[in-house]
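Q: Here's a chain of 124 amino acids. Please give me its 3D structure as tokens.
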Amino acid sequence: MKSPEEILHLFNTKRIDNDWSFIGYKPSDTGKWTHDYHRYPAKFIPQLVERLSDKYISNEEAHINDPFYGCGTTIVTAISRGFRASGTDINKIRNLEIVKCLRKNYEKMKKMKKTSGQKILVGI
């Protein structure tokens, strides 16, 4: 286990990787899929999910699960990129919001190469 000083040293010497900076994105870029519906305290931008899936998922048949999906960024972004996705949230109204988002964006998702022909099903 590292000491607090060692951890601080790691943070202080780590160089910032600008590939993970989304500072140049406008709200219209980060508001795609689910982010323009409502305020949510812990949401993150879809570009983060896209970058993580590009970097760490090598299997096109991957199934993405988000056990605390909140406003649904991970699920909707995963589906938009052709992955199977599932999730849960203690707030049941979130299920309805994801269904609304998927219905709103279904045609756009179908036009995307990875999602074309994929059935999008969400249960409530």
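Q: Can you summarize the key feature?
A: The two ends are 43 Å apart (CA to CA).
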